[in-house]
């Protein structure tokens, strides 16, 4: 009975020692991987110890376990021995390619060509700031020009929709006055050529100018009648008047020229024009 009890105690001690040494299995495995084939003798001994620790069912003398424990306790598992290169991985070739490209003098061009389309699709292209306008010497003239443009824009915005006003592109530069091209689009009135008006730089202190010699109106008796009616009305205008008043006179001249009674006598409309009729807009 005593012999059986003593054998059970030794068995328990053996298993307990194997359990204690099992903590060396993982670091010993890593150390074997770092050593590689540099030191085959030391590698063989480590593999034997790893086999002993990994197979508890493979019985070894207790003295052997104690010797393994003594050796393992003295080993420095954190130190990398022999400066071996890392084990080859599928990503190693990719990393080497990237490292070689990073040392290339064309790396910026390569990155731009590769990633720029995708980045632009995600965040859009950079928007360059507008070029700063050149500083002009006469700031007073700039202020007057801006004030004149603002005055005209505000007046045009309040016109009836049948009046269309645009800037004459031929006189945008080199002139301090504004040259306007005006159109009258009314489905109840016949179409007539555009009317050209010149707005002086100190408008509205100075009245705009509408030349009575409009080349586009010298095409038919009807258009000449319209232009003559406009000229007659402008002669009865007050000292100061606006672009809106010229356009209203233009419309009244067109309506008056459309009357059947004016077809026989082009001068009939001229005798009906007075300061009062102009002021009343008729």
Automatic annotation (TrEMBL):
The record, for PANTHER family, names: MEDIATOR OF RNA POLYMERASE II TRANSCRIPTION SUBUNIT 15
Pfam families attached to this UniProt entry? Med15_C, Med15_M
The record's InterPro entries line, in alphabetical order, gives:
Med15_C, Med15_central
Native source species = Daphnia pulex (Water flea)
Q: Where is the ARC105/Med15 mediator subunit C-terminal domain positioned along the sequence?
A: 151-256
This protein's source sits in the domain of life called Eukaryota
ARC105/Med15 mediator subunit central domain span: 10-119
**Which protein, by its recorded name, is this?**
Uncharacterized protein
